Every structure is written in C-alpha cells, then in structure tokens.
C-alpha cells in the first residue's frame, strides 16, 4: 500500500515541476514512509509521484515507483495490492514476459501489454487505486478497486488534471482551489455523501469499480467515466432454483478459505484485527490454521461495558491459540485525538470509534506490524447490519404473516436499542426520490436523512440560501444506477444502496483505510475478494437472514470454528460510547466545542450559524432530551466539530507550503529523489 499523485497538463509543452510532485508525495508520507519516487514524461506535460510502503519486494530500489514499460508506452503509479500475483507472474513469464522486480505492480505493465488496460482489469484481484499513462494514445486513466477500499481523487484546474490518493495531495498542488461546496458541507453535517463527491468544490472521488479516462485533444482535456465492475445482484426472474443449504455453506467455505490464504501473502508479518464479531473471529480462526506460528491479534477495549467486546474476543483468541493484544481506550483519549483524525479522514465523522481505530493502528504499527486482516464486507454481503435486516423484515418477507414480521421487527428494535437515533431512525421516513427509485427508502439512509432536518439551521445564512431547494435524497438517488436496482429482491436493493453509499465513504473510508494508513498500516479485507463476492450476491436472501439469526450462511459455514457463545451472538455494531453516556466524555467534548464551535471560530470559518450550533449544544446537554435523540445530537455535534477542523486543516492553512515543508523535513527533493522508472534498469 502506498500513496500516489500526479498531473496531466492541458498544454503538453508545459513542463511539470518535479518539486511539486515531490511535495504531493511528501504530504501523504504516512501512506508511504519508505521512499519517494517521481517521473515526468518528457514533452507530454505528464508527471507522477509516489510514496512507498514496502510490503511486497522490500528492495528499496527495485520496488520504487513510478514504473515505465520497456518500450516507454505505459507509465504507472499504483497504491494497493494485486493478489494471486505469483501465479499470474509465472503464467506471463512462460509467455516470454521478463520481470525485473518481485513487485506485484509490475504485473499491470505486462497484463496491459497482453490484453490492453481494460482487458487486464478482470485479472486484477485485490484492493487498489492506480494511474496509467498511455503515451501512444496520450491518455491518462485512473482505476479504483471494485469496492473502493483504496481512495483516489481528481480535479480539473485551468492548468490541467490533478489526481492523488488523498484530497490533501490535490491541495498540495498550487493550482487547486481549496473551498467547501455548499452541497458538500450539507452532506458533511448529515453524514451520508453523494457517491463520487467530496466536501470540497471541484474535488471528485473515483467511484468503486470505475475508470476515469482523461484524453487530450489539442490543449483541451476530455474527462469521462466508465464502470468496469458492479455487484450485479441477480434479477428476481433470473434467480436459479434454490439448492440445499449445504451446497451454499460448502461453496462459501471454499471461497473464504482461499481469500484468506491469498491475503496472508506478504514479505512482512500479517496480523489480525479482532473484535467480538463473527467476521474478525472467523478470519482469525482460518488464518491461525494457515500459519505455523500463533497469529497476532489486536483488539480495542472500551471503558463502557455496553460497548466493550473484549471478553468474547478473548474467548476466540484462546480457542485458536492467538497471541492477543488488547488496547484499552477511554473517552478522553478519543477527543484528544479528534483533530488529528480529521486530518486523515478528510470528512466528518459521526462516532469517535474511528479515532479509536486510529489509535489501534498506531499501536499495531508500534508493535512492528504493517499488515492486518480485517472483517469489513461481511455485514454488507450477509446482511449483518440491523438496517438491512429491518428492510428484509418490512419489504422482503412476502411469505411471512404480518404478525411474524411485527414480532421480528420488535425483537430487532429492542436488541439494537443502543443504536436508536444513529443506525436506526427514531421514526420511519420516506424520501420521494429514493422511494420512487427503490420502492422504499432504505433504513440505512433514514437516520441520516432525518438529521437533514437540522442542517438548514446549522448552515451559515449564505450557504443556507444556496441549499434552500436542495434535496439530499434526490441527489443520492440520481447517483445510483437504476439498472442495478430494478427487478431485484428488497434485501438485494438495501444491500446495494448501503454498499454504494455508507460502505465506501464510511466503513472503508474514514473507519478503514484513512485511519489505518494514518499509521502506515495496510488493512486487507478477505470478505471483499471479488470471486467470493460474486458468489455471495447470488445467495438466496433467506441464507443471509433467517429467523433471529443474521449472516446465517456464514455462521453455519464457520460453526465448528466458533465458540458457542459467539456462534449464537447477534451482530453488535462496533461503535464507541457517545459522549452523553459518561460525564468525563461529555467534558472532553465540550472542551473541543469551546475551541472549534465558539463564536470567534464559527465567524472565522464562515460555514456555520452560531445560533443553530448553540441550540444543538443546549439540547444535547438537557436532561429532558430522550437518549435516542441525544445519540443523534451527539452525531451532529461530531459533524460540527469535524467541518470546523476540516476548514482549519485544508482551507485556512497554506497546504502547498505545508507540503513543501514536509518534503524538506523528510529530506525528499527532486535532486535527491531522482526520477525513477522501471525502463531505466
């Protein structure tokens, strides 16, 4: 895993400044502390930058990017991992291709030569974000992995096209403007983003499974996008006759074991994150069976028994002989590291568990590890979240009686009461645009759409006027592909919408890659191995949620691996205790509010309305406010703090100067960090 960046000028004769490329690499040195590389394609106005985290091929020279093919046709900068690379390398070698490194990145050069870039993509298995310049076609292509595990952003300036692994990489370029968009800020305050957008004006995200293709015609850049992969839940009319449960259980076991075996491949030790959920526990169990020595497992422990999962994680660690390390975190620590976390997430957060995750990744890094396996994706594939199960109960159980559905819904609401007002909306909500597209408004969006009622009063009057007629539900609906929703089962629809919205920007983003890579930690999610996913989307809905049991097929496949208490346990969302649950946490939150939500700070940023902010803080403090409402207000306050911190980090500060200073601190410059390319060997 690494960090990439680069530019494509409108005018090919305009030279690329290598010092800017080095600064773009330096500002993301947390993603790649092991070295900097840059490459300018002469007389083409193209430049690439790379900050390296060495995982495969630890040789500091062989693995240095960017890579250029021997004939000079392709130049590539790559962040991520291509799994199954040894088999692919052996196959290509047998066909006469010569490899000069052991790096998985070099695969792409030869696969592109053999199949063309687009033809090479089906052969890539893993998580990645990369850029390829095709000299003959004068074409730059950005590619993001199928789920968006690895981030990748782009923007257009008067000078040309700028891209990078993080938004701050784009902001390190002097030509890129740094300002919030009115709609982007609106979504920061309600949590759910419109796919492909960010908080900032003109800054776009490459979407999961997408190519962004930039072609130069004279001195004009043409940008288009193309979806190369999507989930493709089957149409109801195309679903095959259901087979016996045992068939699906055996197939899932086969795909899952293979995914873990592939993700254990590295030239450095691989550890596991371990919570009290079956996702991380099953990964740990299979990983322990694959290795000769005990697996290292890292767990977060909270100081609130309602949210702490250490006891059950310890039971799993003992069952498989893992070497467990529990990191105890209290609420005060979380707020102390809030601002630092926002520097890395580059978007608002609603719960401080992402801060806990960043502290965990720091501890793992300090223990000498730089690769961990994680359980992300299981809840998405097997309907583990209560929101998904609620939609199944309400809209996907036609064969059940109204009484049976009512009983299941009452059980679900009661067993997830801690998350009322957060994961589950206080009251049902129907958004016209989403309901028109999907047939219902997914429960995963209802809580955040409910929060939108607060947003207008929280915005600065100018921004309030700019969003007066704005509909967040309509904006989200317009970004979804109707052909992937029409004719699907209700649970498939709910899962698809969650994966395209919350999963990419939240679970994989600010709770995943961004806080892991903040400490140079590569996280690998076996559940997102795409052959496993392509099997999972075809599972009958009743194999995902049956009776009172979530993730039924996974539980059955791993039943003999799990302790009885864990096998029988319902999904529990990994979250930190909200601030109102403890006086010390509330004090720590108020310290931040006094700094970032003061009248002086709000006036300086020009984003928020001081009266609206004070009303939220007052209501949150009131003993008369119901707990479910305080949970929602806690999330809104976290959003308010976040956007003020984002303004301080990315708008108020001179980011290009900050990037140059960081390069100087690291000793990275265009003279010492020589231009490097594979073809020069």
Write the layout of secondary structure elements.
Layout (H helix, E strand, L loop, with lengths): L1 E8 L8 H9 L9 E6 L4 E7 L14 E2 L5 E9 L2 H10 L11 H10 L1 H4 L5 E9 L4 E6 L8 E4 L3 E5 L2 H5 L10 H7 L15 E2 L4 E8 L2 E8 L17 H19 L7 E3 L4 H13 L5 E7 L7 H11 L2 E7 L1 H6 L1 H8 L7 H14 L4 E3 L4 H5 L3 H10 L6 H14 L16 H7 L4 H16 L2 H6 L5 H8 L10 H27 L5 E3 L5 H7 L8 E2 L2 E2 L1 H6 L6 H5 L14 H14 L2 H7 L4 H12 L5 H26 L2 H12 L15
Parallel strand pairs: 13-14, 13-16, 14-15, 16-17
Antiparallel strand pairs: 1-3, 1-9, 2-3, 4-5, 5-6, 6-7, 7-11, 8-9, 8-10, 11-12, 18-19
Question: Which terms summarize this structure?
Answer:
six-stranded antiparallel sheet, 681 residues, 19 strands, alpha+beta, Glutamine Phosphoribosylpyrophosphate, subunit 1, domain 1, Rossmann fold, 3 domains, disordered C terminus
What CATH calls the topology of the largest domain is: Glutamine Phosphoribosylpyrophosphate, subunit 1, domain 1
Main sheet attributes: strand count, strand direction, barrel closure: 6 strands, antiparallel
Compute the number of helices: 28
What would you say the CATH architecture of the largest domain is?
Answer: 4-Layer Sandwich
Quaternary state, please? single chain
What is the CATH superfamily of the largest domain? Aminohydrolase, N-terminal nucleophile (Ntn) domain
- Cα shape: globular
Number of domains: 3
Task: Kindly state the percentage of residues in helix.
Answer: 40-55%
The overall average pLDDT, rounded, is 91
Rounded to the nearest angstrom, the distance between the terminal CA atoms is 23 Å
Protein name: asparagine synthase (glutamine-hydrolyzing)
Catalytic activity: L-aspartate + L-glutamine + ATP + H2O = L-asparagine + L-glutamate + AMP + diphosphate + H(+)
Keywords: Amino-acid biosynthesis, Asparagine biosynthesis, ATP-binding, Glutamine amidotransferase, Nucleotide-binding
Pathway: Amino-acid biosynthesis; L-asparagine biosynthesis; L-asparagine from L-aspartate (L-Gln route): step 1/1
């Amino acid at each position: 895993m690494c960090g990439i960046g680069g530019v494509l000028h409108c005018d090919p004769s305009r030279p690329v400044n290598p010092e800017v490329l080095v600064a773009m690499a330096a500002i993301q040195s947390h993603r790649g502390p092991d070295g900097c590389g840059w490459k300018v394609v002469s007389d083409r106005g193209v430049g690439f930058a790379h900050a390296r985290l060495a995982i495969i091929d630890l040789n500091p020279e062989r693995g240095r990017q960017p890579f250029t093919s021997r004939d000079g046709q392709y130049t590539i900068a790559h962040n991520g991992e291509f799994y199954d690379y040894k088999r692919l390398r052996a196959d290509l070698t047998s066909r006469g291709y010569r490899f000069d490194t052991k790096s998985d990145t070099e695969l792409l050069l030869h696969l592109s030569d053999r199949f063309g870039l687009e033809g090479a993509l089906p052969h890539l298995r893993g998580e990645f974000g990369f850029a390829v310049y095709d000299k003959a076609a004068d074409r730059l292509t950005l590619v993001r992995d199928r789920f968006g595990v690895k981030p990748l952003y782009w923007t257009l300036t008067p000078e040309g096209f700028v891209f990078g692994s993080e938004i701050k990489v784009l902001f390190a370029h002097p030509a890129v403007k740094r300002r919030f968009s009115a709609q982007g800020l609106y979504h920061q305050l309600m949590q759910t983003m419109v796919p492909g957008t960010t908080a900032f004006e003109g800054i776009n995200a490459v979407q999961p499974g997408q190519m962004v293709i930039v072609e130069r015609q004279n001195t004009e850049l043409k940008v288009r996008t193309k979806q190369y992969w999507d989930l493709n839940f089957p149409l109801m009319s195309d679903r095959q006759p259901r087979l016996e449960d045992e068939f699906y259980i055996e197939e899932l076991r086969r795909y899952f074991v293979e995914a873990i075996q592939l993700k254990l491949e590295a030239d450095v030790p691989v550890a596991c994150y371990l919570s009290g959920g079956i996702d991380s526990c099953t990964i740990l169990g299979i990983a322990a069976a694959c290795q000769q020595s005990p697996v290292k497992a890292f767990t977060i422990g909270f100081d609130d028994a309602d949210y702490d999962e250490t006891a059950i994680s310890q039971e799993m660690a003992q069952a498989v002989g893992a070497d467990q390390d529990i990191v105890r975190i209290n609420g005060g620590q979380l707020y102390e590291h809030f601002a630092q976390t926002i520097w890395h997430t580059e978007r608002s957060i609603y719960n401080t568990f992402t801060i806990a995750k960043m502290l965990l990744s720091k501890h793992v890094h300090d223990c000498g590890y730089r690769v961990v396996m994680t359980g992300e994706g299981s809840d998405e594939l097997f309907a583990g979240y209560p929101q998904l199960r609620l939609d199944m109960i309400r809209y996907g159980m036609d064969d059940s009686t109204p009484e049976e559905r009512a009983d299941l819904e009452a059980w679900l609401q009661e067993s997830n009461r801690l998350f009322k007002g957060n994961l589950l909306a206080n009251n049902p909500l129907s958004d016209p645009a989403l309901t028109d597209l999907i047939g219902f408004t997914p429960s995963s969006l209802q809580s955040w759409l409910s929060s939108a009622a607060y947003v207008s009063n929280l915005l600065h009057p100018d921004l309030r006027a700019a969003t007066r007629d704005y509909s967040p539900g309509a904006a989200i609906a317009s970004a979804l592909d109707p052909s992937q929703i029409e004719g699907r089962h209700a649970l498939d629809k709910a899962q698809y919408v969650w994966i395209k919205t919350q999963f990419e920007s939240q679970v994989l983003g600010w709770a995943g890659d961004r806080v892991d890579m903040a400490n140079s930690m590569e996280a690998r999610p076996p559940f997102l191995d795409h052959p496993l996913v392509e099997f999972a989307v075809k599972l009958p809905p009743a194999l995902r949620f049956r009776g009172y049991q979530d993730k039924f097929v996974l539980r059955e496949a791993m039943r003999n691996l799990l302790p009885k208490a864990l096998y029988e346990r319902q999904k529990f969302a990994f979250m930190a205790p909200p601030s109102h649950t403890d006086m010390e946490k509330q004090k720590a939150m108020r310290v931040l509010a006094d700094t970032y939500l003061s009248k002086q700070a709000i006036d300086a940023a020009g984003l928020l309305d001081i009266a609206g902010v004070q009303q939220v803080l007052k209501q949150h403090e009131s003993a008369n406010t119901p707990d479910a409402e305080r949970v929602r207000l806690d999330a809104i306050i976290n959003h308010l703090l976040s956007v003020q911190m984002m303004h301080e980090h990315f708008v108020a500060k001179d980011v290009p100067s900050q990037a140059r200073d960081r390069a100087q601190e690291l000793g990275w410059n265009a003279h010492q960090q020589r231009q490097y390319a594979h073809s020069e060997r």
